[in-house]
Amino acid sequence: MSSIAIRNLTKSYGSVQVLHGIDLDIADEEFVVLVGPSGCGKSTLLRMIAGLEDITAGDLHIDGTRMNDVSPQKRDLAMVFQSYALYPHMTVAENMAFSLSLRGKQKSAIEREVGDAARILHLEDYLDRLPKSLSGGQRQRVAMGRAIVRHPKAFLFDEPLSNLDAKLRTHMRAEIKQLHQSLGATSVYVTHDQIEAMTLADRIVVMNAGRVEQVGTPLELFDRPRTRFVAGFIGAPAMNFFEGKVELNEQGKPHTHIGPSPVALPEGMESQAGAIVTVGLRPQHIPVSAASTDGNARVELVEQTGCETNLLLKLAGIDFTVQTRDRLEVNAGDAVNLEFDSRNMHVFDSNSGQRLN
Amino acid sequence: MPKRNIRGLWAGILVAAGAATLAASVPQAALAKDTVRVRFAEYSTKTGPFFKDLAAQFNASQDEIEVVVEHLPWPEMQQQLITDISAGTAPDISHMATRWMAGFAVDGALAPIDDLMSEGFAETFVPTFLDLQKIDGQTWGLPIAASARGMFYNKKLLEQAGVDVPTTWEETLEAAKKISALNDEVYGIGVQGSGLDTEGYWFYSLWTHGGDITDENGRSGFASPAAVAATQNYIDLIEAGVTQPGVLGSNREDLQNLFTAGKLGIVLSGPWLNAQLAEEAPDLEYGIAEIPVATDRATYGVTDTISILADSEVKDSAMKVLEFFFNDENRLAFGKNEGFVPVLKSMANEPYFTEDPNMAVFLDMSPVAKFAPLVPQWEEMAESLKSALAKSYSGDEDPAAALTSAADKMNALLDE
Amino acid sequence: MTRKAKRSALCWLGLSPLLIVVLFPYATMLSTALKRKDEIFQFETTWLPDSLYFGNFIELFANRGFGRALLNSLYISFGATLVSLAVALPAAYALSRLRVPGKGTFRTYLLVTQLISPIVLIVGLFRLFAYLGMINDLNALVFAHSAFYMAFAVWMLQSYFDTIPKDLEEAAWMDGASRLKSFRRVFLPLCLPGIAVTSLFTFVNSWNEYAMSLTILREGSLQTAPVKIAFLTGTLYETEWNIIMAATLVATVPVAIVFASIQSYLIRGLSLGGVK
Amino acid sequence: MEMTQTTPAQASRPQSGARIGRNLTNLVFILPSVLLSLTIIGYPIFEVMRMAVSDVNRFGKIRGFEGLGNFLKVFQDPIFIQSSYQTLIWTVAVVGGTVLIAIPVAIILNEDFHGRSIARTIVLLPWAVSLAMTALVWRFVVNGDFGTLNLALTQLGLPFNNHPWLATAASAFTIEILVGILVSIPFTVTIFLGGLTSIPVTLYEAAAMDGATRWQSLTRITLPMLRPFLQIAIVLNVIYVFNSFPIIWIMTNGGPANGTDILITYVYKQAFAFGKLDVAAAASVLMFLVLLGFSVLYLFMTRQRGAAGQ
């Protein structure tokens, strides 16, 4: 297994630049997830690592060797495609054995490897089938198996679960995680699904518009998103934001307003009075209680998920989402009380989007 | 509910198809006068216009008959005629090769014209040529074109090689050797090995060696000693390397083109080549002599026929058209146009034929002209002969053996 | 970019033997068509004519009626394409979408119609059209060609139709469109590429067809371009190569232009159709 | 030509009387095509069948019943046997050559390169000319003394000054086969290009990741995936080439010494030169049976193989 080092990697199509100098280090045996909205360049980055896209500028090192001009055949990486890209004219066993047979491995060795992979992936009964007779989940497993048998330097995953239904996706997610734990393979995984990113990754790389917004462990990203974009992207339901002007009270403590009511801001913020900031609060971090008659917010919609209740609220013309585990007896139109705790606040510069606290 | 719409769609298709068919089958307006359809094949680019013009003259000259002329290329003529006759859409008068006529007559496609011809008309023809149109005493057509064959030689090449115009096959071989030696791209004599009339080229040698197509018992003469000698004569030329390369790939036109380009010392051909040379190689100096001799003087007489079809409903009118075409003036014009030898007695004394040395030789040879037999299966016999010749010329098979199998085939066909 | 340039060079190099063989006859045609008749058979052959001579082309159109022949060919090819589409479209639709008794038999039947060369059938074909009074009728060729080329059209269209999801039509039915309307408004527009390709195949086949046109159209003014060209070869004692080459060149140009303009469309139509 | 699968929903629906009626109504869709081809092709086929078992004069008039006599005559004709053998060579060589050339050509034309559309158009060009014209032009090209082929070869310094290409059966047949291949390439390349564009790009990417070289992905991905297209190209080309008349007829007329005759030229000669429409009809029927046998066998075999892979 191997480490991957990416230095100032750039990609342009003609005059259009789609990746603007990416720097990233992936350690041996690490599971890194590239996440971001569609069009952010995450798949392009993955395909550049794979060698399927040319590198316009910058360097790619795998195990310390520069790989920019090495063809994908020689990079010894395995990839699981979104469409699985199973060879339709080969059986499951042949699909999995393909790379080994290309390398001229002995038949017995190939059989053993394929057999092992099939056992891990519960595919033993399907080895003689053609891909078209398999279900989506089985095809996905075959695609995994094709990668596993090779013992490559690293696994690359390009949104491998996006074609599966929700339940299967959760299940396969767990399998991939377990597989990684047992194989310890360096993995780069592209997805637009932040749950997948959170659950799978050792580290997450959040990308936006061809740039890396933040690299960190799932909890770092959740707890201390470095930019407003990351804050909004990670976490479900998405973080609530409201804008306000920073004011200092007599004690010199910063606060702002939502409508008429003042809201305390966290202390130690790198911000001057009068600056416009964006304040973020996760729905889980806004305590809510049913109010008698004149609560500060009005309920617009109630969503029950069984375990949690999501409330869509309006407060001084601003939409808020709040999640609570309490069984509140509220209906649309009712008034509720919200509390804003400055300890849970994420404050960003409204212009640059950079974190201020 | 979908049913109705399906019906609508179907009805639409039907209406469209019906309209098209209707438009297609509007009958021709009935004509008060007889329409005579005449079909010609083209000898040269002049043939079509010539007959169109003739038809116009005829139509202008009277009110009872309307001549309509169609013309077809030779290679398609036979197939088209067979197809037409089989479907009953044949013209009233059709041009054809005389060698097809026997088959057509035997299978009842042609009308005998003896009773249709007006008094004295038959006597205007050179008897040899009209006799060729007769089977079992009935006349099945008129000889529209007649040609004899002669030896064309390139004067300059003969001069350069220092040889006289050969008169025997032995002299021809010697002359051809000397001409071939002049230049890599000059060949002594052309020998035809493929395409239309390949067998005719062989007949020159056959008859001048004293052989014939059928013997005195009416059996095949393809394998007679004279026939083998005649074949050996060409094989000797080929083996001596004095012919054009690739005899088996050369058809009549290829030889003519070689002669036109000045690459060929000697070629055996017919009078039409005069017309072609005048147009395409006006500077070429050439002469025409009799076909070289081994034992006998001979030439190949070929006619083409124009016949009235058995299915024609206007045979009398058709005959009138033919008689117009065959009046002295029109025949002379046609003969001059295409370079054919006279078929009418009246033409024989025309200065055009007697004074031009390039035409006179053909006329001189007319008395020794020989003809292909008028048998229904002639085409098939000729095909097997061609095949035997190809095998002999290429050296793939002994000529005697090859010719014997062609003779067997001919005899079998004669017995059918 | 340089990589693509290198690849381009390799591709052209790989194709060059074939391209040379394809273009060679065209060079020959051009060379010969620009020569005078007496320049063709000379002691030394050359590629270039003594001087550029366009008389053959003028002769072709002014005196040989080649323009008329091209129009006849166009009429027949368009007609045959339309008629064969008119019958092949519903048949292919039925094969792809509907329950029809005897589908397998129909498929075998289509194959059987392709197994016999028209040349073999010429006598019967001629008798048929003679009976229908359609000798010397361009429409006879329209029907004959469409009958012979229809089977291929059905195969192409059916395999194309098979790739179009049934949902789309069903959606149209739910929207209240009748079967015919959904066929016309939803289905047909979707299969336009397939129809275009099929039309092209039929058109080209009809444009090039020789034996049937020769037999059924006897009148000079009704001949099609290939037949006209053959007639130029047809005199007994000589072939007018200069005129023939000019004619062949002229007959090629329209089709070549059509190819060039629609070739990407052609291949897209085919790939989606996936002739299977 | 593959059977469309009946969907389970369709299959499980009960066949009520109304449904059967509706199915019959659906016949309306295929009826026009059947009627059109039945009249125009069916009648001539019937004529051929009838003549094949009759004694017929040269104008197709039936003189009597012949039974299998015409077939016997055909089989006793050594030229028929020779032509059959040559037809086999002709068909196998032309179709085989076409496929072998069309595959790499299609693969190259499927690459993204400068001037691709020009190259594609040139490759399709032979399609724009009728076979008869192509054959005619090639007859001129290979003419020994005046043809442009020898002119070009001589200009390249090769000793082909006046080489007679059509003078031996072997050389003439080779030239004819090459021309046959040339004119079959456009159709075949088009079919293959259609097949190639239908192979998803990700398969090649997957193969590259699996370590396949370009050659390996060609032999192990492209070619197997082209198989259905290959099959259809082979079946259709065999039918067309087997029945292809103008090239041989115009270039050599079947000569020299019947060395380039194939069955269709044999039939043509019998019918229109020798006036033996009955023998020609019998030979045509045999040709038809051979092709039918081939098609059925081939389709059956490929379907079997396809089924075995499931």
From TrEMBL, chain A:
PROSITE patterns noted in UniProt: ABC_TRANSPORTER_1, ABC_TRANSPORTER_2
Molecular function GO labels: ATP binding
Keyword Lyase found: no
Keyword Phosphoprotein listed: no
Keywords for this protein: ATP-binding, Nucleotide-binding, Transport
ABC transporter domain ranges (all copies): 4-234
Record-linked SUPFAM superfamilies: MOP-like, P-loop containing nucleoside triphosphate hydrolases
UniProt xrefs under InterPro entries: AAA+_ATPase, ABC_transporter-like_ATP-bd, ABC_transporter-like_CS, ABC_transpr_MalK-like, ABC_transpr_MalK/UgpC-like, Mo/tungstate-bd_C_term_dom, NA-bd_OB-fold, P-loop_NTPase
Principal place of residence: membrane
Signal peptide (UniProt feature, chain positions): none
Membrane topology: Peripheral membrane protein
Subcellular location: Cell inner membrane
Top-rank taxon: Bacteria
Family assignment from sequence similarity: Belongs to the ABC transporter superfamily.
UniProt-listed PANTHER family: MALTODEXTRIN IMPORT ATP-BINDING PROTEIN MSMX (PTHR43875), OSMOPROTECTIVE COMPOUNDS UPTAKE ATP-BINDING PROTEIN GGTA (PTHR43875:SF1)
Name of the protein described by the UniProt record: Sn-glycerol-3-phosphate ABC transporter ATP-binding protein UgpC
Natural source organism: Hoeflea poritis
TrEMBL record, chain B:
CDD domains the record matches: PBP2_TMBP_like
Keywords linked to the UniProt accession: Periplasm, Signal, Transport
Signal peptide: 1-32
UniProt keyword DNA damage present: no
A Pfam cross-reference name: SBP_bac_1
Top-rank taxon: Bacteria
Listed name of the protein: Sugar ABC transporter substrate-binding protein
Similarity comment: Belongs to the bacterial solute-binding protein 1 family.
TrEMBL record, chain C:
Record's bilayer topology term: Multi-pass membrane protein
PROSITE patterns linked: ABC_TM1 (PS50928)
Intracellular or extracellular location(s): Cell membrane
Main location: membrane
Alphabetical UniProt keywords: Cell membrane, Membrane, Transmembrane, Transmembrane helix, Transport
InterPro entries: BP-dep_ABC_trans_perm, MetI-like, MetI-like_sf
Transmembrane segments: 74-96, 108-132, 138-157, 186-204, 241-262
Family: Belongs to the binding-protein-dependent transport system permease family.
PANTHER family xref list: INNER MEMBRANE ABC TRANSPORTER PERMEASE PROTEIN YCJP, MALTOSE TRANSPORT SYSTEM PERMEASE-RELATED
Protein name: Carbohydrate ABC transporter permease
Organism for this UniProt entry: Hoeflea poritis
Lineage of the species this protein comes from: Bacteria, Pseudomonadati, Pseudomonadota, Alphaproteobacteria, Hyphomicrobiales
TrEMBL record, chain D:
Domain ABC transmembrane type-1 residues, every copy: 84-298
PROSITE patterns (UniProt xref): ABC_TM1
Protein keywords: Cell membrane, Membrane, Transmembrane, Transmembrane helix, Transport
Membrane topology: Multi-pass membrane protein
Database matches in InterPro entries: MetI-like (IPR000515), MetI-like_sf (IPR035906)
Pfam families: BPD_transp_1
Matches recorded under SUPFAM superfamilies: MetI-like
Subcellular location: Cell membrane
Membrane spanning residue stretches: 24-46, 88-109, 121-141, 165-193, 229-251, 279-300
Main localisation: membrane
Signal peptide positions (record): none
PANTHER family listed in its UniProt record: BLR7065 PROTEIN, SPERMIDINE_PUTRESCINE TRANSPORT SYSTEM PERMEASE PROTEIN
Family: Belongs to the binding-protein-dependent transport system permease family.
Name this protein carries in UniProt: Sugar ABC transporter permease
Source organism: Hoeflea poritis
